[in-house]
């Protein structure tokens, strides 16, 4: 495995990634702050649904900094919570502290883990392209199975609701 990331030492790459994620959160906060109540009439919110965005805003109102911190670990929320925190005028010092802590704890495992997976796969590919292809095919099969299983689980309650069970 290489010890560089984008041409810099791995530790410096991790710090750069943490800063990128932190700055992204600040940009989202200020977008929400600038929009304020107009957030709910924006095109993306109309597409997503005002009810869903209000639910996220309620999460920010109830949980505050904990919601901002925890949002780093949930895919859709890591983008929505900072915008709603800005729109709801969450106090900036509290937001910045939670965002900094979340960025610092969430980013390194993803960067280093992703780095290890990519270089591990390249190492396998260098030794046996057939084994690397089989590994990639197995990963795709597992992901496809999980997606299908999730789709079936979501469809099952709606079919029971129609039959009255």
TrEMBL record:
Gene Ontology CC, one term: plasma membrane
Annotated keywords: Cell membrane, Membrane, Transmembrane, Transmembrane helix
Domain VTT: 9-115
InterPro entries in UniProt: DedA_domain, VTT_dom
Membrane disposition: Multi-pass membrane protein
Spans traversing the lipid bilayer: 6-23, 95-118, 130-149
Annotated localization: Cell membrane
PANTHER family: ALKALINE PHOSPHATASE LIKE PROTEIN (PTHR42709), UNDECAPRENYL PHOSPHATE TRANSPORTER A (PTHR42709:SF6)
Similarity remark: Belongs to the DedA family.
Protein's name according to its UniProt entry: Membrane protein DedA with SNARE-associated domain
Species of the source: Actinomadura viridis
